Amino acid sequence: MKCPYCSYTESKVVDSRPAEDSEKIRRRRECLSCGRRFTTYEAVENTPLVVVKKDKSRQLFDREKLLRGLLRACEKRPVSMETLERFVDSIEQNYANEMVKEISSVELGEYVLRELKKLDKVAYIRFASVYRDFSDVDSFLVELKKLQEED
User: Fold this and answer.
1) CA within 13 Å, CB half, 132
2) In terms of CB atoms within 10 Å, which end of the chain has fewer, N or C?
3) Is the pLDDT of residue 149 over 90?
């Protein structure tokens, strides 16, 4: 950390504590050259996840949009709101852990479907019908047969 007084690049941390918002760490530092003290703040860098749509346009990942879709799919199903929020958290965390900055909407949709299938099969079919744009009853039947064969 560069000293704001003498521009020396070495300092030692004298005190460290959470900042007011608990999202940052406040550090008191002492310059190893001039001995003056200064304060720095450290925060986690959140890199937003960008979704590349089929038409190649890009938009920020919208957890609320995904949660709304999951809520519709899980309507009248024994899946709690807390479970769905953890579901979306795990999806975000998975991509953050992999340091992914961009993901195609197709890859994201398929990932959601794989995970939703483990959670609730009826919700999976509902979500798949919208995501894969089922146009007729045959589309439903094909997906249902695949689901039955897996069991």
Assistant:
1) 16
2) C
3) no
